Amino acid sequence: MRICKRHGCTNIATDGDYCDEHKEFGLKYETTINDARERANLDRLYKLSTNADKRINDKFRQSYGWQKLREEILKGGQCQMCGATNNLEVHHIVKPNGNVELFFDKANLMILCHKCHIKLHAQETRGVQNKKNNVIF
């Protein structure tokens, strides 16, 4: 037995970290903390996966041609993973790595919402890291 983790509470936590009065609060709090940790981890992995790629393709991303193509692709679209219609982004299926034809190839583009885009890049990064460590998952 221990004291409830809720700030200022002196009740005994009968099961877990919170007393009966604060169990619901504890569940919400822990869920919020875990969600924040997951988002931070996904953001970190996303940044790892896109930093080098962005530098190579910056000249294409800043072009008028890309802005028009991106606008055309996103117009009336929805996320191809979850169906969301807000916060949409264009994702390159195969990283162009400086290849202008691949960068502007419509068949190499898909619409994703920001959340799914981050998740996809995080999965790709995990796969690359696991391959480097000879781990198969």
Overall structural class, as computed from helix and strand content, comes to mainly alpha
The overall strand count is: 4
* Beta-strand proportion: 5-15%
Shape label: elongated
Task: Walk me through the structure.
The structure is a single chain. With 137 residues, this protein is mainly alpha-helical. The chain has one domain (29-132). Helices cover 54% and strands 10% of the residues. The chain contains four helices and four strands; from the N terminus they run ββααβαβα. The chain has helices at 23-61, 64-74, 100-104, 114-132, and strands at 2-3, 12-13, 88-92, 109-113. It has a two-stranded antiparallel ribbon. A hairpin with an 8-residue loop joins strand 1 and strand 2 (12-13). Helix 1 (23-61) packs across helix 4. The longest helix has 39 residues, at 23-61.
Quick recap:
The chain has four helices and four strands, in the order E-E-H-H-E-H-E-H. Helix 1 packs across helix 4 (114-132). The chain starts with a strand and ends in a 5-residue tail after the last helix.
